[in-house]
Amino acid sequence: MSASPPQPHVASGSDEDPQQLMDQRRKRRMLSNRESARRSRMRKQQHLDDLINQVAKLKNENSEILNRVNVATQHFMKVDADNTVLRTQVMELTERLQSLNSVLRFMEDISGLAMDIPEIPDPLLKPWQLPCPSQPIMADMFHC
Question: Per-residue pLDDT averaged across 112-138, rounded?
Answer without folding.
Answer: 61
